[in-house]
Amino acid sequence: MLCACNFNCDINYCTSKFGCFTQIVLKSDQKRYSILYGCTSNLIQSIQCGLDNFKDQFKCCKSGDFCNLNFTNEYLQAPKLPRDTTIQFWNINYFLIILSCLFSILISGLALYFCKKIRQIRRESHIKDQLKNFRHRIQHEINEPKIVVETIQSYTSSGNGPSELIQRTISRDIHIDYDSGPLGKGRFGVVWKAKWNHDDIAVKVFFSMNEPSWTRETQIYQTNLIRHENILGYITSDIMGLGCTVNMIILTDYHPLGSLYDYLQKNTLNKSQLLKFLFSISNGLTHLHQEIFSTSYKPSIIHRDLKTKNILVKQNLECCIADFGLAIRFNHNHIENDYELSLRQGSVRYMAPECLNESLDLRSVESLKKTDIYSFSLVIWEVISRLKIDGFINDEHRPPFYEMVSGDPQIDVMRDIVCVKGLRPKSKIENLIKDQDLIQVVELMRECWSNNPAERLSALYLKKKFKKFIQ
Fold first, then answer.
1. Among 114, 138, 155, 379, which residue's CB has the most CB atoms within a 10 Å radius?
2. Could you say which enzyme class this protein belongs to (predicted)?
């Protein structure tokens, strides 16, 4: 049964099978009494009930739950029991459960925070290691260093002193303009506008898995005597950490007019602009293909991915050739050993017939030059298609073979069109041209896209012809 309890109890009631008791105890002043309630825990206590000694008297009962509350005393007040003891018990449990949940959440949050902090520290350490390894490898793979060397004159008391070389990576000094969006995207990376020493430059950021392409393009740009007015101006190469990754970068001159492809999208051309574009492209291509023997040797360079998206328009409306990620060098008519060649490299739409049908002789520098000439013929077609003629409304700029294929065509489809059927791009404007110089340009274009590589013209010949037209 349940009994009222006010001593040796965690709560104000207890249970017993022997009954309940009320004990009256005289206090030390001999004038007041205190009353104790509890459970009869054994048979001996139940025998004490009924003794007549009022000083230490037990009153026992078994008549029902809390029967020991029936005794009252004017000096003392019986303990107040809750109406529903079950509710109080469950409230305490709920409180403990909520407290446990909050404690668990706190511990979990702290654990996640420390785990994230540890992972961040490890990631930063890993990036630093990668940067260190990349820079070590660069010094062995590239002939020229890819770090900016600043010469600072340190003066002695006499005013003359030795030059002191201070090295630092250029990636720390550039500020990429991410807000304006990328200038262009390719298979190997993304090109951004950036600031360096308060000047506008272009930064080509290579994806981490395309290190061979970055190495190859850097080697091409660092070739002896490569600098030319119609080759994109090269500044330097470096590596930099972007977020959680390590990327390779190439810094070049910035040309706000963008690529020739972008320019043709927005503009039509008159005869003078058209010839200026074609002459500057052929001039740059001639310099690439030419092998120069002098105090410094320059090998022949084959671009292998010539198209309007890889040609930039300068402020003076001349063009310069860019993007050498697939280019190769020939030293004394022998290809460099570190290149892994494939018959099918470059954009499929601009790929020469001998590349599509895999008949190209990779050991012949002249054969490889003719693949660039074929691609150049399609660039000529794109430029001519934007020629402005009185009484004729130009269609919007479209890539070669747009009426036959769309998007990024498959090799098998292009081989069927170019090699099997022998088709070439068509333009409505070709039949409307009356100017004799431009008629000859169309004839040169058709010679350059011949199925037979031997019938195609050289870059030097084209350069001389276009220069004659301009004069």
1. 379
2. transferase
Catalytic residue among 238, 305, 323, 372: 305
Q: Is 204 annotated as a binding residue?
A: yes
**Quick one: pLDDT band at residue 386, thresholds 50, 70, 90?**
very high
Q: What is the pLDDT of residue 146?
A: 39
Q: Is 262 a catalytic residue?
A: no
pLDDT attached to residue 426: 87
Q: Name the residue among 198, 194, 200 with its Cα closest to residue 249.
A: 194
pLDDT level of residue 63 (50, 70, 90 thresholds): confident
Q: pTM, whole model, 2 decimals?
A: 0.66
Q: Please choose, from the candidates 75, 72, 88, 73, the residue with its C-alpha nearest in 3D space to the C-alpha of residue 12.
A: 88
* Domains (range + CATH), the chain: 2-82 (2.10.60.10), 168-253 (3.30.200.20), 260-470 (1.10.510.10)
